[in-house]
Predict the structure.
Amino acid sequence: MSVLIVKNIAKEGPGTIEEFLKERGIDYNILEIYDCHAEIPDIRDLSHLVVMGGPMAVYESTEHAYLSLELAMIRSFIKNKKPVLGICLGAQMIAHAVGAEVYAGDKQEIGWDRVDISPEGMKDPVLSSIAVDGDQVAEVFQWHGDTFDLPKNSVRLSSSSAYENQAFRYRENVYGLQFHIEVTPGIIREWFADEKGDNIDDMFRQSDSIYPEYRKRAMKFYEKFFA
């Protein structure tokens, strides 16, 4: 097994995904695709693709030309029936890659929230790993304003009150998560380091409280996805 992790911006790294791969001794490489000097690997040698988030939008490929390359990579992995996982922007990129519309939403979702897991999501061996106490709900960290239509040949796995498409599976082994399964308290503090206020302090305290169980569920998700 050899995993390629694509970063769209320096701050949005793989977090607990990388921790899982290190703990299991799984070979992986991180491609900082936004860096014009980045060396593009031969994707024929890779088994899995993970696409991380970023503040840019799918529809901003003129300003961020590397998104076109990223799109081609996603399509190549899917064509060759290799597993793909997209986080936030990565989920939107997958949706776009298989023909769905991606667009600005009506509101931003920021911080910890609970999303509903659909009956199909509870049956899915990967997504059901993040269910809280076996209930049809997942506790997740959000930071997005864009959304997407459910791609054809996909199954909706999770929704929130604000956005219908929080997680989906395309065909058998391609997963898009609008939320950030990879976060740690340290990552959240880095993202919001320049923000002040009681709500930010509450978010940090909540992160510390939630994280131990959150990490356990994330690790179960990775165990299934990278099986």
